[in-house]
Design goal:
Elements lengths: L4 H13 L11 H4 L5 H7 L3 H7 L3 E4 L7 H10 L5 H6 L8 H6 L2 H10 L10 H6 L4 E5 L2 E4 H13 L1 H9 L13 H15 L2 E2 H8 L9 H4 L5 E2 L17 H15 L35 H4 L15 E2 L6 E17 H5 L5 H8 L11 H9 L14 H18 L5 H16 L9 H14 L8 H18 L4 E6 L4 E5 L7 E4 L7 E7 L2 E7 L1 E2 L16 E5 L1
Parallel strand pairs: 1-2, 4-5, 12-14
Antiparallel strand pairs: 2-3, 6-7, 7-8, 7-10, 7-14, 8-9, 9-13, 10-11, 11-12
Helix pairs in contact: 5-8, 10-11, 10-12, 18-21, 20-22, 20-23
Length: 558
Amino acid sequence: MSVTRNLYDFLCRWRKTNSDSCKEYIWIDAICINQADTTERGSQIGLMRDIYSSAKSVIVWLGEENKHTLAVVDLIQRLPSIPMDRLRTINPLDLANTRTKAMMQLGDWKGCAELFQRAWFYRTWIIQEIAVASKVTVICGSHIILWEDLLYTSEVFSTSKWGTQVLSIFHKPGCGGLTVGATPYMLDGIRKGILEAGGWTLDALVFSARPFLATDPKDKIYALLGLARASSGSELKFPRPDYNLLTSEVYIDAMRAMLEDSRSFLLLSTVEDKSQRIVELLPSWVPDFSFGAGASLGMGGKHAYSAAGDLPKGLRLLSEKRILGITGSELDEIVEVGESMDEINNGRSLIQCLQIVSQLPPTYFTGQSRLEVFWRTLVADIADGQHPAPESLRLSFRYWVMFEMANAFIDKTHSMTTWDTTMAYMDDLARSDPVGVLPTSERILNYAGTYERERDKFEDYSPLVSAATKLHTQFQEKVGGARPFRIFITRKGYLGLGQLSLRVGDCCWIIPGACVPFILRSKGEGRYHLVGETYVHGFMHGEALEQEEFGLKEIELE
């Protein structure tokens, strides 16, 4: 039989270094399971947990060594001698201690980051392999690394300023949303949860596994079944794994099982914008589990928002698997949409957003000024876990606007007519602003002149540009923490934040059992497409339930 080069390297290395113990059995799924036989592959799913939990040791093969491996392994083995509290606070300017300095050589840390970028760290199947293993042996070429040492290093990357600094210096991107070096630390959290509770719910596992990769996208579900339990602690109801099914069919079965098991509709918040989808033939209410999704308003704000109050979810699992029955109440219709965040970052001005904000009354129905409503909506009124977002973010918003508009002016991304129109909106809004949230056109042009002379320097900025850049970044990080989105306004004048694919005519709905509202697109006869979750300012804490026109009705998502 043929094997991959990586497996061939392992077998050669194992035979060479373990000649005395070669009488022991080694179970390798790529060999022990006929990968070409879909029936056999499906039947093995139920055995995988027992195989790994019964093994004397689970071997993690990271691949062959390179010229950096010796120094990296030495670093990993010596790192636990430094207390974690020390490592969490250390930075490049704080290396006076000789022992600490010896372990903080950037070249070794670059090699360490590259080690954590090896393919093993991103495989979905490793979640189960590590979670149930009684012992883990990590091998890279001729080197053996204790799992506990690798875990300690992973914790440094995941929780310390030093780890963040290393990744930023060497521009080491993760994969699908996973931070480089974070995998062992993340796996240890899952392992502890499973040991304490006997398993995780499937939705918790699937959400945690979104950033991981699988050669067969069906394994984004099947690889987790051995660890899953129902929320009641009983056995999870799920159809027998079948690799002959379409990926979309597997994902539909998984979503139905998770929704039935869950007390809420939080899972609907994991549905990504349709422009990001890869798997074909998915209903609008089923996430594409094949890739790592970005941030989610519902997941990030599940303890902050309660748009449907305490109303329980109204779920109807119909015989037609592609249709989901729910209850909901229509809030309002979208009548205008603004630029997407990507468009603004790529040089578009804020003209559409400013036009929308100009349509709001100076005082929003919540009693806040329209500009305060604007900046709070941009960040979904949450920042660094705080809700409402702190007032200090208002200054960051001011400089974010100034920075984005200055870039648009310098790069001449619009005609002068469009620019003059944008500045007219800006000045009109600024005049109605009692607290100076928005910069005037004069201030923007003055800043643009200074910034144009300095923006390619990347260092030694003037105090003005340095402060503006820092404050812009602070706000940008809060806005960028959400999924790609665009601003919208409804017929009744409500300001909101929704998915890229929303369009005029879509409607905002309150869905019992969901902590955030959703945007739905009518397909006629009581059926709708789920466009995605949304933030609607002033309707995130059950306010819609107090309106006279509020009323629930049964609808179907397709």
